[in-house]
Amino acid sequence: MYRPRLLTLLLSCLCFLAPSFAAEKLPAAFTVLADSSASLSPEQAAIQLEQKGTRVEGVYNPGFTETVWWVRLHMPAGFTNRWVQIANGHINLIDVFLLNKAQHVSDQFQLGDFYPFHQRKVQHTDFWIPPAGDSIVTILLRIDKRNESLQIPIFYTDADGFQQTIQDQNISRGLFIGWLLLLLVSNLFLAISLKEKIHLAYIAYLLAGGLWLMAQWGIGFQWLWPNTTSFPSIARPFFAGLSFLTALELMVQFFQYGTQQRSTATKWMRVAELMILIQLAYILIYDYKTIPAINKITYLRASSIVWLIAAITALYYLYQMLREKRPFALFFTVAQIILIVFAGINVTFEFGGNDGWQYFFRDNSSAIGLLFESTVLSFGIAQRYNFYKKEKLAAENALVQEKAEAAVKIMQIQEDERQRLARELHDGLGGTLASIKMAANKKIDTAPSQAGEWLNTQLGQAIEELRGIAHNMLPNTLQQAGLKVALDGLIQRWQDGGAYQLYYHNTVTQRFSDLAEVSIYRIVAELLQNMHKHAKAKQVSIQIWTEQHNLILSVEDDGIGMQVPDSTGIGMRNMQYRTNYFGGTMHIDTSAKGTTIIISMPLENIAPK
């Protein structure tokens, strides 16, 4: 709610400050000359500048250069009170020569980011030459930034303009950095409270982007690494690469949620990240200032290739996300396009473009692009969180509904079990006892001496039948010794009965939850009963093992196959209910030559509670 207002305020301040730069500074007129041999003396350079130098005004942008450049400033009227601003704090070496009326060097000093920050005449991110006095009529600059991109923006200003320029820069840059800090702090709280990787990735991206801006403006050199002489030259490409690296990771995290599987495009993104990491490691290991020119050029070209491959990989990744219709894929793409446009404006000035207003935009385009992109992304992350929160709530409601349905099914299973127990007691044990009663009365009347022995035998059989029913319902060994021992006993009883030839292999010895062990036991018991009663099998194979975090139960027979009533009966429904309750799957393959049933249950769902 407040972020759009803050953004409007920030842009208003930026629009207000931009004209103030132009109003307080005057573009300097100067002459430039390429010194390919890098051997000219100041006096020789002054003569050649006069004879064949190129006159420019405000900004000279040769782009990538392999030569030393000489610059001769043309003194305006009243130069005594004028300050000279070289508005590029990333020039490696600047030798400043002050020439008097006789064209002799009256004074000289050095500037550049190859020197510690305190070497500068003015402790500011740009290079400043204070008023030189009436005795100085010419200022010569020997500028050395060979094998890199060079821009030479020079302006004149008075003492008030000098103060105003610094003040305006501090305000505009402070607003940009303050906005990034606001985003950083808000996402830090979100990372702590929500514990999602995307906020950590976004924090890393904001930090890298902020350091990139500080390196771009020279603030990092002024405050963070002022005494180094090599890192200032690599700070911009290093933090730009780090920003690119964290942007790739943020992109991956933006589209990853929950237990989604990693796509091929994600794996290519990891490869791109690794390439950038190698590039960043190289630039840190070697002293960039002392690298031979040929190695520096090779490194720059290799870096360009790495960045191009990473950019293509990122575009391919976004394309895949758009194809898969991932939530907010278009939104994220728009945010990246904004940054690419402003970064492209910056890059174009590395190779040419001399207008003053263009230079101002170039000096701030990285910040503006990052500001817009980070703001859009921040909004997108918030919307993404709301979207997945609703999706998670819907999934939780579905889970509650599923559990409620499972509870109803469990109650139905219990009721079915009671009905089956009632049938077994009535049809089996009840009939046996009824027949014993009728026969006992007759035996007592006709052969009282044999009645006792006969009755004892018949009651023993009835007791065994009752014990069998009890074993099928809940054997004591299941609770005492576990599933494997209980199944071993069940299989042994069927083998002793000789109903069919039975092959049995069980490698699972671990314990599961009580409900899971009872369910698995009853599934096996039901399958054995069905194969005897309905399938008319001669051979049965039962195998139980664990594989890839799942418990697998495989049962095969050579019977007549599963008929329609068998596949829809109470027993099959109960097996399906039990399997579904534990998040498992049941696959049935049946034909006239036999039936194969494979049941799989996740181990985490049947583990002891």
Please tell me about this protein's structure.
It is a single chain. The two termini are 46 Å apart. The chain folds into three domains: 138 residues, Immunoglobulin-like (Sandwich), CATH 2.60.40.2380; 219 residues, Up-down Bundle (Rhopdopsin 7-helix transmembrane proteins); 133 residues, Histidine kinase-like ATPase, C-terminal domain (Heat Shock Protein 90, 2-Layer Sandwich), CATH 3.30.565.10. It has 609 residues and is an alpha+beta fold. The radius of gyration is 42 Å and the shape is rod-shaped. Helices cover 61% and strands 17% of the residues. It has a six-stranded antiparallel sheet, with helices on one face. Strands 1, 4, 6, 9 and 11 form a five-stranded antiparallel sheet that branches. Strands 12-13-14-16-15 form a five-stranded mixed sheet. The longest helix has 91 residues. The N terminus is likely disordered. Helix 3 packs parallel to helix 10 and helix 7 runs antiparallel to helix 8.
Summarize the structure.
This protein is an alpha+beta fold and 609 residues long. Helix content is 61%, strand content 17%. The longest helix is centred in the middle third of the chain and has 91 residues, at 356-446.
Distance between the termini: 46 Å
The CATH C-level class name of the largest domain: Mainly Alpha
Name the CATH superfamily assignment of the largest domain.
Rhodopsin 7-helix transmembrane proteins
What's the Cα radius of gyration? 42 Å
Q: Remind me, CATH topology of the largest domain?
A: Rhopdopsin 7-helix transmembrane proteins
Strand order within the widest beta sheet: 3-2-5-10-7-8
Strand segment count = 16
Shape: rod-shaped
Give the % helix.
Answer: 55-70%
- Percent strand equals 15-25%
